[in-house]
From TrEMBL:
Lineage: Eukaryota, Viridiplantae, Streptophyta, Embryophyta, Tracheophyta
Name this protein carries in UniProt: Beta-xylosidase/alpha-L-arabinofuranosidase 2-like
Compartment(s): Secreted
GO cellular component, one term: apoplast
PANTHER family xref list: BETA-D-XYLOSIDASE 4-RELATED, SUGAR HYDROLASE-RELATED
Species assigned in the record: Dorcoceras hygrometricum
Gene Ontology process terms (BP): arabinan catabolic process; xylan catabolic process
Gene3D superfamilies with a match to the protein in the record: Glycoside hydrolase family 3 C-terminal domain, Glycoside hydrolase, family 3, N-terminal domain, Immunoglobulins
Length: 770
């Protein structure tokens, strides 16, 4: 048994060690990929059925599992899998990351002189702000191509534990930056599209994989370390209704629509049960209801935490048996390699359960071609260093950042600036010359950096003043900043946060700008003679009501963590070569909200009896600094309704109870509810002088039954219009899918009565009846 003190070694330091090693390690003599069934070196392997790529996967997997001893099987239950040399199977490292580009987090991937960097796209939250579903998939395709190229030279694996599709429930969460935001529909569309981009092969073979993605962290995981509450032992108390209509939908879409190859269970407990030891959540839902075609992996050392921190079982062998029996196939960490043998010996788990886990693991590797011999002779065998950091990929990183940047305030005459009329631009702030900060977390070595200062200086003469020693801004350099600002034609202030403020393992307590940043901003705005553009480089939202209200601060941009080309994208927007069209994927709350609400309260819906205000735009009715979907443009877009019904009837059988008594809702699963659909057509026109992209949102406000959301997103479309251009946008609405809701018991219902549809400033009332 491992010493009980083992659990106090935080994962953060383990990951940090991996990053340091990845950055410092030189790769020599290992320019070949890791693979099994190398029949050219060992012709005898051709006698094994598992090496015969002409056979079906199930037959091959069964053959392989049958040849392994128990100890050899146990070696393949952990991320650092132990090779079986007698069968021509090498060691394999399952843990690689690719959240927004191939990452050096995790021991499975490293950079070297051969491949010194990979394309680093914006952090996911900014990518989500594009609301561009096709872009989500395109990014996945580029990342998987670079991953395969690195695999071919021995620098990466084939299994990548991305994306993170947790709901950004609370603005203080340090990992909200990794997610697609607070909305279940957006998170679902992002997860499924990005996974398709990562996994789908170019030859159309739906059974095989380009790389294997992993949707994480399942489930109701969104707390790191807040006021003594740790993710390792936090019990998320979640209602059935919130679970089914908020936390679960992104994972369901990831499996059913994205066909993801893996799901990672989280550290936390849900309603008193560790997620990695809950058979209802794993075997019942992921494997049973959703029919996952792949493997279930634990978050790193979560089994360690289940035993040592949560003390959920009496012995580590019981923990190992519980996890395997619940549906875990692979353990990130070494817990199963240490305690599975003892669990089998004690009769706590049957070897057939281990065989099931191995079958899921090996089937995934089979689908990746790991057991098909030399990768150079397979579909992606020609990829190599030349295919990483291509010019096209780097331009895509810049384009994603440009599409995601959100313009939140713009006084007439402020943005865009003119490069010909600005003689001197003061560039002030601790993130002005940011490079690594732009990447966010789960980053890799980028192809190159363009900082905001570099991007702006490429267009006009600049005067730089950091204003603070770092983003914590303990003491603002007010006098120096005011001096350069007072003589400049315009001022750009790049403020915000970095991983020292919000990160994995680090939640915020306050959501105001750190330290004396606000003092610095107001002081500069007071003396500036021209436009003052506040650029907020942050993961989550900030209470910047002061800047919104200050007339001297003429423009506000949120740029997230914009990736390697972030500085160029910021300059493109500020000087008008790109018209911003990003929309906020999360609510920006005032500081008073977090003063009132405990981060540990998982309830999405408000509670009038206690004054609890609820969470996210779907349920929160209080004041906001900025709202979900906010974002303006250098142009104006109008919407006009062309087609929409005013009445929709749902046919029910003649003896249905709702014919004889008044019903507030009907079951969405009833046969009569299927195929009840209608179309909404909206004409969108660009009435301004600048071409630009525009996101059209379709929201619905349902009748007030079953604690329904006050508003929820049904669909969105992204379009690009020239000046005076217009386009007809078509939405197809399935009544039982789009207009339904979960009731208090987790049953899907369609509310009868008036539903209000929202598109831009349009409101349309639709009556749903039987």
């Amino acid at each position: 048994m491992a010493p009980a003190s083992r659990h106090v070694f935080p994962l953060f330091f383990y990951v940090l060690c991996c990053i340091i090693l990845s950055n410092s390690r030189t790769v020599s003599g290992q320019n070949k990929p890791v693979f099994a069934c190398d029949v050219s070196s060992n012709p005898g392997l051709m006698n094994f059925s598992f090496c015969d790529s002409s056979l079906d996967f199930q037959s091959r997997v069964s053959d392989l599992v049958s040849r392994l001893t128990l100890q050899e099987k146990i070696g393949w239950l952990v991320n650092g899998a132990k090779g079986v040399s007698r069968l021509g199977i090498p060691d394999y490292q399952w843990w690689s990351e690719a959240l927004h580009g191939v990452s050096y987090v995790g021991p499975g991937t490293k950079f070297s002189g051969l491949v010194p960097g990979a394309t680093s796209f914006p952090q996911v939250l900014l990518t989500a702000a594009t609301f561009n579903e096709s872009l989500f998939e395109t990014i996945g395709k580029v990342v998987s191509t670079e991953a395969r190229a690195m695999y071919n030279v021995g620098l990466a694996g084939l299994t990548f534990w991305s994306p993170n599709i947790n709901i950004f429930r609370d603005p203080r969460w340090g990992r909200g930056q990794e997610t697609p935001g607070e909305d279940p529909l957006l998170s679902s569309k992002y997860g499924a599209a990005h996974v398709r981009g990562l996994q789908q092969r170019d030859d159309g073979d739906k059974e095989r994989l380009k790389v294997a993605a992993c949707c994480k962290h399942y489930t109701a995981y969104d707390l790191e370390n807040w006021k003594g509450f740790q993710r390792y032992n936090f019990d998320a108390v979640v209602t059935r209704q919130d679970m089914d209509d908020t936390f679960q939908p992104p994972f369901e879409s990831c499996v059913l629509e994205g066909n993801v190859a893996s799901v990672m269970c989280s550290y936390n407990q849900v309603n008193g049960k560790p997620t990695c030891g809950d058979p209802d959540l794993l075997a019942g839902v992921i494997r049973g209801q959703w029919n996952l075609n792949g493997y279930i992996v634990t978050d790193c050392d979560s089994l360690n935490e289940m035993f040592y921190t949560q003390k959920y079982t009496k012995t580590p062998e019981e923990t190992a048996a519980l996890a395997l029996s619940a549906g875990v196939d692979l353990n990130c960490g070494d817990f199963l390699s240490r305690f599975t043998q003892g669990a089998v010996t004690a009769g706590l788990v049957n070897e057939t359960v281990i065989d099931r886990a191995l079958s899921n693991n090996f089937a995934t590797l089979m689908r990746l071609g790991f057991f098909d011999g030399d990768p150079s002779k397979q579909i992606y065998g020609n990829l190599g260093p030349k295919d990483v950091c291509t010019e096209a990929n780097q331009q895509l990183a810049r384009e994603v950042a440009r599409q995601g940047i959100v313009l939140l305030k713009n006084t007439q005459g402020s943005l865009p600036l003119s490069a010909t009329s600005i003689k001197t631009l003061a560039v002030i702030g601790p993130n002005t010359n940011a490079t690594h900060t732009m990447l966010g977390n789960y980053e890799g070595s980028p192809c190159k950096y363009t900082s905001p200062l570099q991007g702006l200086a490429a267009l006009v003469a600049t005067v730089y003043q950091p204003g603070c020693a770092d983003v914590k801004c303990a003491t603002a350099q007010v006098d120096e900043a005011k001096k350069v600002a007072s003589t400049a034609d315009a001022v750009v202030m790049v403020m915000g946060s970095d991983q020292s403020i919000e990160a994995e393992g680090l939640d915020r307590v306050d959501i105001t700008l750190p330290g004396q940043q606000q003092l610095l901003i107001n002081s500069v705005a007071e003396v500036s003679k021209g436009p003052v553009i506040l650029v907020l480089m942050t993961g989550g939202g900030m209470d910047v009501q002061f800047a919104k209200d200050n007339p001297n601060i003429t423009s506000i941009l949120w740029v997230g963590f914009p990736g390697e080309a972030g500085g160029a994208a910021i300059a493109d927007v500020i000087f008008g070569s790109y018209n911003p069209g990003g929309k906020l994927p999360m609510t920006w709350y005032p500081q008073s909200y977090v003063n009132q609400v405990n981060m540990t309260n998982m309830n999405m819906r408000p509670d009038p009896t206690t004054g609890y205000p609820g969470r996210t735009y779907r349920f929160y009715k209080g004041e906001t600094v900025f709202s979900f979907g906010d974002g303006i443009s250098y142009s104006e877009f109008t919407h006009s309704l062309v087609k929409a019904p005013v009445l929709v009837s749902v046919p029910l059988q003649e003896d249905h109870v709702c014919h004889s008594s008044k019903c507030k809702s009907i079951n969405a699963v009833e046969e009569s509810c299927k195929n009840v659909a209608f179309d909404i057509h909206v004409r969108v026109k660009n009435t301004g002088k600048a071409e630009g992209s525009h996101t059209v949102f379709l929201f619905s406000t349902p009748p007030e039954v079953h604690n329904a959301p006050q508003k929820h997103l049904l669909d969105f479309k992204k379009l690009h219009l020239t000046p005076k251009g217009e386009e007809l946008v078509r939405f197809s609405v399935d009544v039982c899918k789009h207009l339904s809701m979960m009731d208090e018991n987790g049953n899907r219902k369609v509310a009868l009565g008036q539903h209000v549809l929202h598109v831009g400033n349009l409101r349309h009332t639709l009556n749903v009846r039987i």
